[in-house]
Write a structure and sequence with these properties.
The protein is about 35% helix and about 25% strand. The protein has about 220 residues and is α+β, with helices and mostly antiparallel strands. It has a six-stranded antiparallel beta sheet.
Length: about 220
C-alpha cells in the first residue's frame, strides 16, 4: 500500500488529468468547433495562395478531392485528422500549422486561454494547441486526448520538409506503429520518430490516454533555394 503522501499525490495527479481531459472536451463543443473550422479554412486558403497553387493542383498533390478542399477552405466541412494530414503534406507543412490563427499577432507567449481544442470527427481524439500562434519557430507542441479504443492512422510519406516528432505519454498507454514496428508506450514513456512512413496511434485500453506531441520541422536545402 502506498504511503498517505504518495497516495494523495497519485490522486491529485489523476484529478489533474481528468480535469484536463474534461476541459479539452468542453472546449471542443459546437461553437468552438465552428471557430476552429474557420481557422483551418483560413490557414489552408492562405498557405495555398502563398504557394501559388490552384485547388486542382493541391488536390492532385495531396490526394484529396477538389470538392473536399473547396469545402474545407470555405469552413463548411469538419475534415478528419487523416484528411488534414494529407492537405498539410500537400502544402509542405506539418499538421500543427493548420491549426494556427493566421489573424493573431505573432507572440512568443501562449496563454492557457489561447489553447484552443479541436475534435477529430472520425476517431473522437481531442487535440489542444499549446504553442504560440504565428511565432516563427520550427517547433509545435500539442496535447492529445485519445479515447479508449480509438485509432488514427496517417499515410505519411515523403515530405518537402523533414518532420520529426516526439510523443510523451502523460497518463494511460498507447500503441504507436511506425511503418511495421509497433511501440507500446506507458505513462512517462517518450518516443522519437520521423514522419516519413505510415504512422498509427491506437489506444488499446478501456481508459482515455493523454499525451504530448512535440513536432519539429527542418527544410531541406533544395526547398530553401
Amino acid at each position: 500500500m502506498l504511503p498517505d503522501s504518495k497516495l494523495r499525490n497519485a490522486i491529485d495527479f489523476d484529478s489533474i488529468v481528468l480535469d484536463s481531459i474534461s476541459t479539452m472536451q468542453e472546449q471542443a463543443v459546437a461553437p468552438v468547433a465552428l471557430d476552429i473550422n474557420s481557422r483551418i479554412a483560413s490557414r489552408v486558403r492562405t498557405l495555398r495562395t502563398e504557394l501559388g497553387m490552384t485547388l486542382d493542383a493541391l488536390a492532385a498533390k495531396c490526394d484529396v478531392s477538389r470538392s473536399m478542399l473547396s469545402l474545407v477552405e470555405r469552413g463548411e466541412s469538419s475534415p478528419t485528422a487523416v484528411v488534414l494530414a494529407k492537405i498539410a503534406t500537400g502544402l509542405g507543412v506539418p499538421l500543427a500549422t493548420l491549426f494556427d490563427d493566421s489573424s493573431a499577432p505573432a507572440s512568443p507567449l501562449s496563454r492557457r486561454a489561447d489553447h484552443i481544442s479541436w475534435r477529430d470527427p472520425q476517431s473522437g481524439y481531442i487535440r489542444r494547441s499549446i504553442s504560440p500562434a504565428n511565432f516563427p519557430s520550427s517547433i509545435h507542441i500539442a496535447e492529445i486526448a485519445l479515447p479508449a479504443g480509438a485509432r488514427v492512422a496517417y499515410e505519411n510519406g515523403a515530405h518537402d520538409v523533414s518532420i520529426h516528432q516526439q510523443v510523451w505519454v502523460q497518463t494511460g498507454s498507447i500503441e504507436v506503429t511506425v511503418g511495421s514496428v509497433i511501440h507500446r508506450l506507458a505513462e512517462d514513456d517518450c518516443l522519437a520518430l520521423q514522419l516519413n512512413e505510415p504512422t498509427a496511434f491506437r489506444n488499446p485500453t478501456h481508459k482515455a490516454a493523454l499525451y504530448i506531441v512535440i513536432v519539429a520541422t527542418e527544410h531541406s536545402r533544395a526547398s530553401r533555394r
